[in-house]
Amino acid sequence: MLAQVEKILLDDAAIIPIYFYALSYMQKPYLEGWYPNLFDIHPLKYVSINTNWQPENDLTQKK
Fold it and tell me: Which end of the chain offers a freer environment for a tag, N or C, measured as fewer CB atoms within 10 Å?
């Protein structure tokens, strides 16, 4: 019976997704080991802060 109902639903009804999952994040450039993933779960075991990071922008360097 469930298979018949499913067949009727798929044949006769228009089904459109009304929601989809999207990921957005901001990350500091000196953060290493953090990567986006589909489950949005981020174990901190491999995350670190690069203390030697320097911006590559000429505006921050004094001449």
Answer: C
